[in-house]
Amino acid sequence: MLNTQRTNIKQTIFKYLQESPEHSIFFLGDFAEYGSVETIRKILLQARIQGLITHLSHGIYLKPTHSRFGEVPPPMEAVAKEIAERDHVEIMPTGSTAANILGLSTQVPMVVSFLTTGSSRTIKIGKRAIKFKHAAPRNFAYKGKTIPLIVQALKELGEANITEQTKSALSACITKANDNHTFSEDILLAPAWIQTIIKPIIKSNNETLATQQ
Question: Which residue spans within 91-172 are E strands per DSSP?
Answer without folding.
Answer: 91-93, 111-116, 121-125, 128-134
